[in-house]
Amino acid sequence: MLATLAEARVPDSVRCETVTHIMNMEQRGFLRTTLRVPPHMLDAGAVLQAMGSSAHGLTEQDVRERLRQHGPNALPRGRPSTAIQIFLHQYGNVRKVIFLLISTGAAEIVLFVLALASNVPLPLVAVQLLWLNLVTNGIQDVALAFEPAEGGELARPPRPPRERVFNGLMIERVALSAVVIGGLAFGAYQWMLGRGYAVEEARNGTLLLMVLFENVQAFNSRSETLSVFRHNPLRNKLLFFGTLAAQAAHIGAMYTLGLREVLGVQPVSLAHWSELLALALAMLLAMEAHKRLRCRSSGRSVS
């Protein structure tokens, strides 16, 4: 077989990779340092000599000796998850999806209630609200369902048998998210109206801010206790690239003739972008502070 490999008309890189793949490090070093030629340029006899073999193969004694020296040619098997670990992982992901949907929906309610109570024009019209839900809940909630396990599921204390999905922690996080997102979005809307923005321009800025808020919230939803900075964003590629695509879709709508007229959106300046992004990141800081306080009170670490 080696003679055929040496004589075959295949690319040099392929032959080199094929031959050296069946050699250990000492044998490769011998070929490169002693013979000073790539393995694919040798004849079959030289390669067999470097490998300590022959055209007839290894004897039974040689096989036993190499098995003793190098061990069996087998990959280590990972430890499979137990049924309870799988259940706890899936239950945790269900809570993450519910939290994202309920917290962002509650924030939109807070935004509209504040606007009605202040007797100002509605901050978003119906088509903008539909668009907001499309680009922020279209793929992010699905991606959260595939969030990898955080680890340590069996090390946590068991939940009370009668505990509901909307336990104290869930209610706290939803309430905090609704107040921060809804309150800041309404404050930004009022601030834009006060600076002389037309209602349509203020709605455009508010819609962009809400898209940023809810995309940030998708990453806040990845864990109830662990800091977002402890999560590798590429560990859940569907969430990472899906959120980027959703944000890009909204930016594209702001520049697309016809669509931007339907949605009532338009491009904004870089300075305005910076202001809105800074506000959106406040949601990240608020949730990080809540996780730290919660974990400190329970004696666990968030980072």
Briefly characterize the structure.
It contains 13 helices and no strands. With 303 residues, it is mostly helical.
CATH topology of the largest domain: Calcium-transporting ATPase, transmembrane domain
Specify Rg, calculated over alpha carbons.
30 Å
Q: What number of structural domains do the residues give?
A: 2
The H-level CATH homologous superfamily of the largest domain, spelled out, is Calcium-transporting ATPase, transmembrane domain
Which parts are unreliable, with pLDDT below 50 for 5 consecutive residues or more?
1-23
Average pLDDT metric = 84
Query: What would you say the CATH architecture of the largest domain is?
Result: Up-down Bundle
Please tally the helical runs, counting DSSP H or I stretches of 4 or more residues.
Answer: 13
The class by helix and strand makeup works out as mainly alpha
The sequence of SSEs as H and E is: HHHHHHHHHHHHH
Strand tally: 0
How many angstroms separate the termini?
55 Å
**Main sheet record:** none
What portion of residues is helical?
Answer: 55-70%
Coarse shape: elongated
CATH class of the largest domain: Mainly Alpha
Strand content: under 5%
Provide structural commentary.
This protein is mostly helical. The chain has two domains: about 1-70, no CATH class; about 85-300, Calcium-transporting ATPase, transmembrane domain (Up-down Bundle), CATH 1.20.1110.10. It has 13 helices and no strands. It has helices at about 1-5, 10-20, 25-35, 45-50, 60-70, 85-120, 125-135, 140-145, 170-195, 200-220, 235-255, 260-265, 270-300. The chain is elongated. Mean pLDDT is about 85; it is low at about 1-25.
